[in-house]
Amino acid sequence: MQITITINHLLKVFEVLAWILFLGLSVEVGALICNTVITLFFNTNGVQHFWDEPKYMAQLITTNDYHFVVIASNMIIVGVLKSIMFYLIIKLLSGKQFNMEQPFNNILKNFIQNTAILCLGIGIFASYGSNYAISISKQGYPTPDIQALHIGGADVWIFMSIILFLIKLIVHKGIELQNENSLTI
Hints:
Strand content: under 5%
Largest sheet: none
Shape: elongated
Helix content: over 70%
Structural class: mainly alpha
Radius of gyration: 21 Å
Number of domains: 1
C-alpha cells in the first residue's frame, strides 16, 4: 500500500498550522493588550507577568511611562498585523472560492496584495519600534533585547513584502493569460 500526498492534503496541513499560529498570536496579543492596560492604569507590577525580560520593562515604566507606551504599542500593532495575516491565510485555505484547477484568479491576487501590505506594515512598525528602543537605550533607559520584544527582523518583513508585490504582478499577468486562453478555446 502506497501513501500518496496530494496538494489538497498539504493545503489542509497548512490550514491547521495557520489556525495554530493564528490562535497563538491572538492569545499573545490579547494578553499583551490586557497586561499593558493593567500595568498602565491599575498595577505597575503587572508588567512582570508577561514579558520575557520583565525587569527592563518594569524599570522603564517606573522611569518613563511614555517610552513604555510607545514600545508596548509597537509590540501590539506588530502582533495584531501578524494575526490578521494568518487570518487571511486561513480564509484563503478554508474558503471554497479558491480553485486549484485555475489558480490564477482575483482571489489569489487580492490575497497576495493584502499579505504584502500587511508584511510592509509589520516591517515599518517593527523597524520603528526597534529604532525607538535602541535610541532610548542610548539615552540610558533600560530596554530589553529587540528579539524579546518580538519586533525584530523588520528588514526581513520589508523584503518579504517586496517579493510578494512582485509575485502579485506575476499572478496578475497569469490571470490575463488565463483569461485570454479561455477566450480562444
